[in-house]
Write a structure and sequence with these properties.
mainly alpha
């Protein structure tokens, strides 16, 4: 696998992580925050909604860019006939004058 394909796979993995993060319930986050910092103020529900929307949008952008990157990676790869044509070169029809 070339470097671009690896980057595209990592982008898909990151998009999956974003989607998992968007699915975490607000109760769990509030409980986790209260254990870590009990004196922190409570987050409103709107903050969790905004975070979910942003995470889903970032995941969607990552998936879209990974698909476009796979297309670029596929277009950049050489198949057998292209490689043979590049090595042999175009037919020359030169005439000496």
């Amino acid at each position: 696998m070339n470097a671009l394909a690896v980057m595209n796979v990592l982008s898909l993995v990151l998009a999956a992580v974003f989607l998992v993060m968007a699915c975490v319930r607000a109760d769990w986050v509030r409980a986790w925050r209260s254990r870590i910092n009990p004196s922190a103020e409570e987050l409103p529900d709107a903050a969790f909604t905004a975070a979910r929307v942003i995470l889903v949008l970032m995941a969607g952008m990552g998936i879209y860019l990974a698909i476009q990157g796979f297309s670029v990676s596929d277009d950049a790869a050489w198949d057998g006939s292209e490689l043979t044509g590049a090595v042999q070169g175009p037919p020359t029809t030169w005439t000496a004058t």
